[in-house]
Every structure is written in structure tokens, then in C-alpha cells.
Amino acid sequence: MRPYFKFLLFFGLIISSTAAINAQTLIVDKANDNYSENFDVPVSVDSIKFNSFQIKLSTSDPSLVIDQVVLNKKISKGTLKFSSTGSIYTIDYSNPDPIAIAKKEKLFDLKLNTTNRFSEKKLIVINDSKFYNNANVLSVSETVKPSTVNQFVLFKNDAIVFGLLMLALGFVFYTESKKGGFWPKFYKYIPGLLMCYMIPAIFNSLGLISADVSETYYIASRYLLPASLVLLTISIDLKAVFNLGWKALVMFFTGTIGIIIGGPIAILIISTFSPETVGGAGFDAVWRGLATLAGSWIGGGANQAAMLEIYGFNQELYGGMVLVDIVVANIWMAVLLLGIGKREKIDNWLKADNTAINELQKKVQNFSEKITRIPTLTDLLIILTFAFVAVGIAHYGADVISTYLSNNFEAVSNPRSALSSFGSQFFWLISIATLIGILLSFTPAKNYEGAGASKIGSIFIYILVATIGMKMDLGKIFENPGLILIGLVWMTIHAVLLIVIAKLIRAPYFFLAVGSQANVGGAASAPVVAAAFHPSLATVGALLAVFGYVVGTYGALLCAELMRIVAVG
Fold this sequence. Notes:
The protein is of the alpha+beta class.
């Protein structure tokens, strides 16, 4: 080859490589609201330096209308012109100073509205896009992501949603109280608590209600849950709780170990027949996403967020992992609730020693019977005063403590830190509410158990159960079967280990269920499962769940590294 040909080839390679490096992507992201007629569509671009652009868009359907363009704050000082001619929308932007974007960043939001419903459809069509750095035209590729918008939900008003949830609870309690006919046979096999969970799930799956557009779960978990913990703890015999012994902790840590080893084993099993399901490279690697599940299933939301930060999983794929978390964790909770109806048979098979649990229940029951009275209006108001003043104190304390720790300790404020859970307001909310309930149990306030304190607390718990059920969409079980299968295998390993250890140490089903849920469900659902056995046991679930927050990130880190070794080698 002649020298000048070599030079031209070399020069051409440099140009093509430079072009490839500088080739940027204009990204029309998913709509940010799946349920409204009015929604925003973010438009982003990855690393680029420009001072002007012109983008011509159209919508994929005449019912989709772009009303407005809102610039990102970073580029808001420039000049924006937004116009439409027929079905074509033109966005012109210019700035005398070049704008450098180091990584993917939003340029603007498109504000749209529609009267139709769209499911996983590309809403925007990019007809033309030109970016300029002064007189230089930049090469920009284009990507449009499908969105679901204006999805059908019949009832979006929270008052109606709450009414439906109460209707479901009332139906379950009424039918469960029937002494003859079909219902006693039905509830012999299906616990009422499970029905309180499943009926709202059916409502959600049918599109009658949706947790995505309702604040009822937030209200129940942030207000009614801490209130219930106070009322269910107000008459607790703390010494008797500690007398439950070492088996409770053993089952909790068994659940933790089950999650830690379950992840890598699940990857190994699935990889034997579907390697692509557990594959992916770089920040798209599936094991990175599964690390966030480990954080959630050992600790809670804060631990999950920490794992997302630490391992940098592609956030565009993160929704799939959230789906697995919701579906698998809710299926497992349903299984645990189903087991509560058969706990005597399970305990007999486990040859479990229920002495300490029965003694605690008996103590609380005897105390309650001794002080039981017909509650007056004053009694009920004072009970609610204890509950919601404690909730107020817990919220105030949670805000102050979490803010102080986050502002003064980098280990807490850094989402990558294993101690980031201590910056979670929910962590402190549950901890403080439980502590207040325990402190009240040493005062005459415990006598209000005789006026029905634990019964009111149980009502709050059942409302929480209904709102948790509302988050479950039964149809989504089949949306991403590969990832769901990984989650199910993972949870099966967790369950098998719990059963084996419970059998070996003769631990009651109560310890198995609560030890598992303190890991997988966290503080929002562990007290629910515990209270399903007996209201006096809710404190055990809360205390173990709080402990789960502490160890969550450490356990998840170990699990993630094991999954990385298995997946990457």
C-alpha cells in the first residue's frame, strides 16, 4: 500500500472515530404521568456542547397536543421560540454562550394533553433535529421511548378510594363473623387478613383504583402505622417480649442470609437455561439491578436507594426491578398470610415450642380482661390523643434527627454509604413511635387497653393492609416473566432456608413469618404480619424491622458482590 493511501486511511479512521465519539443522542423519554390526561414528556441529550438547536416534532396521534415547552433551568437564559404549523411543532433555541453538557441531561419538558389512552406507544415523532456549536453542525442521533398515558383508573378521588377500601374491610369482617353457610368453610382455608389484602389488589388490577394516583398508602404508612404501633405497644409486657428468646433473632438472620445467598443462586439457576435473562453489560448488567432488590429485601427503601447509587444500575431499566420487588414481595406476603390460617398445623409439623409466645399473649389477654370496661367517648378520645400526639412527636423527631444526621455526617448523607438508612425519616418515625409506645406501657396509660386501645390499633393495621394490597397489580405478574422468575426463585431459596432452620431449632411459624417479613417487607408490613398472630406481638415485628434497616445495606453489599462474581466470573 502506498504511503499516501496509508495516510488517508489513518486520517479517515481518526475522523470516523472522532465522529463516533462526538455522535450524540437526542432522547424523548417516557411520560412522567401514566394516569392523567395532562402530562410532561422530558426531552434530553447526552454529552454535547452547543449554543443553538432547532427541533421539529409531531405527535403520533391527532389527539395528542403539545401545549408548551418548558426549558431546563440550566439553559433557561437562552431564547426559546415555540411554534406550530399544522401538525408540526418547531422548537428554536439560541444562546450567545456555548452550553456544555457533560452527561445525559434534560433540555426541556414537553407539556401535552390527550383525550385518548395510550399504552407503551411512542407519542412523539422527531421530524428533524439540528444542533449547532456556532456555525458547526453537530451530529445527533435520535431515540424516542414508548409511554403509557391516561391509563384507565375509574376512581382517582381518595375519598372514594378510601370508601372502597373500607367496603372491602367491612365485607371481610362481616362475612368472617357468619356462623353458618358458605363463609365459615371459606375462611377455614383462606384467612380474613389475606382477603383484606387481596380484594384491594383485585380492585387495582381491574383499574377501579390505583396506588399510583392515590395517597392512601402514604397516609396509612406515615400516620396510621405509627399510631397503631403506639396503641398495640401501650400494654406490652417488655420483659415478656425479651423472653421470646434467641429464636426470634435466629430466624431474622436466617431470613437475611436467605436473601444474601438466594440472589447468586437464583442467577446460577436461571443462567443454565436463560443466560440472557441474567446478562447485560456495564451499568445495564442485571446483577446491578438485582443488588437494589437485595437492599429492599433485607432493609427497606433507603437501603434500596443506597444500592442503586453504589452500583449505578441504569435508571432507565430500574422500573423493571421495582416491578419485581412489588410483585414478588407481595406474593410472598400473601403466602405468609395464608400460612397464618394454618399456623397450628405448621407448628405441629415444625414441632415448635410456643410457650413464650403463648405466655406473652396470655399475659396481655389477662391484663386486658382485668381492666376491660365499656369505653366512653372520653376514653376513645384519650386513646386517639395518645396515638396521634405520639405520631406528631415521632414525625417531629424523625425530621429533626434525620436532618441533623444528614447535614452533619457524610456517612449518613452519602446515599452510597451503608449508614444512609439513618438519614431516612421513615426509619426514625417507626423507631420513635415504637419507643413512645414502650414508654407509655410503664405508665397508667396502659390501662386504656381495657377501653380498646389495641382494637383501634388493629383497625389502623387493617387499613394499612388494604392500602398495601392496593399496590399489587395481579396482571403485572406476566409483564416481565424472566425477571419475575429470578425473584420467585430467589424468594423460594429464602423460604426454604427459613423452613429448614425453623425445623432444626423448632421455631414457631410466628418467628418464621415475622423474621422473613422484617427483612422482605420492612417496617410497613412486619408489624402487620406479627399483629395477625396477636395484637400484642406487633412490637416484635416493628423491632425486628428496624433492625433490618441497620443491617440492610451491609447484607445487600455482600449479596451484590456474590451476584457479581456469579454473573461476571
